[in-house]
Amino acid sequence: MRLLRAAWVAPIADDPVADGALALDGGLIVAVGPWERVRADHPDAVVDDVGGVVLIPGLIDVHCHLEWSLVGGLFSGAHGFGRWIAGLLSLFPLAEGLLDDAARLAALRALQAGSTTLHDNGPTGAGVAALTEAGLRGTVHLEAFGSDPAAAGEVARRTADGVAALAAAAGPRVAVGVSPHAPYSAGPELWHALTRALPDGVSWSTHIAESQDERDALSGRAGGLADVFAPIGVGIARWPGAAHGSSVRAMAEAGVLGEGLVAAHLVHVDERDAELLARHGVRAAHCPVSNATLRCGRSPVEMLRAAGVPLALGTDSPGSAGTYDLRAEARACLATHAAAGLHHTPRELLAMCTRDAAHALGRDDVGALVPGRRADVVAIRPRPEALPGDPHAAALDAGSRVEHVWVDGEPLLRDGIPVRVDAAEIETRAGGRRLAVC
Ligand SMILES: [Zn+2]
User: Fold this and answer.
1) Does the model's pTM come out above 0.90?
2) Domain limit, last residue, from 344, 360, 376
3) How far is the CA of 289 from the centre of ligand 1 (A)?
4) Which of 143-147, 251-255, 315-319 is predicted with the least confidence, judged by mean pLDDT?
5) What percent of the chain has pLDDT over 70?
6) How many independent structural domains does the chain possess?
7) How far is the CA of 264 from the centre of ligand 1 (A)?
8) How far is the CA of 181 from the centre of ligand 1 (A)?
9) Same domain for 282 and 301?
């Protein structure tokens, strides 16, 4: 039994506690409350007094790409979404070793930013080793691409084999899922073939309704995505009756929207789409930084919430966005929607990164500091002038920093230093790899 004592505990599921404590046992939280009460109830426990920090639940990134940590700045959204994604996809033939080192750097950055659970997506599944080595929790989704109906079965079989091999190599905190990349890059035949090839209960993730280019491609308009994909050998997938351009409607009509599917972006959606997403149990991964960088527009989160679509935040990747820093994503979320007249409080934003994210991923084991949940905890050191005040605002503030991270009660970051992995070695190797793509 161990007690963590801190200036503030912000359980998210409940009001914050000044001079608070958590009691941890066997990787679980067993008590939360004022220090004096928790101490009195557990007089023999070992005490770890972490001082003037705010303890919050480990952050949960519901959509990211660990393999793309080294491509920041290489491709700009200034010339449209289509040109950006064609540039990114053209890197696929690069050596897998590069993506392995990139994923390790990404997992390090996520840990340093306080993320403890990640919903990763990538073409090789390099995130499995990266998360396992760092000690982080998460699900790595192996991406599948294909617009040719005749090849769908073979692509699905290969993908299912890849998922099984990755799952066998994954540590106890890491699961493996599948990600048909997007409706324009993975056709309905591939979605159905993947459903047949993969076991029930596997996690699914994708991108939906990200850009106007996607609407144009689905509705069969020439140019746009088709023109930039052709030179790299990628065909545009065709969906029956998709002339309206709505990815959500086309996918719902094709029967591929399933309970628990996590869909990133959802920018170009209307009320009918939102109602369909809710009815099919789809969860929204909101990526405001990426949407803004690629000039895709603002996701109507108020409409998705009103329809009952669970919604949380994802950092996407430096290919289009930031550096796996979920609190920065939350601050961007605040700014994006404030400009449209929608206000989020610091507590609501932190909830999007924790409690709401766990709900979106269908998890009841993480996302809040309450008894019975896994002891995934982050200690954030606010700017000195931020305490006393609102601990949620102090923990979100850009001037605060992540000091300690625990997963299952195991320290993974102590005083900003990773415990399981060597940060300098990862950064040096990744730096060398970056030269190969520049
Ligand atoms: Zn993405």
Assistant:
1) yes
2) 360
3) 11
4) 315-319
5) 97
6) 2
7) 6
8) 8
9) yes
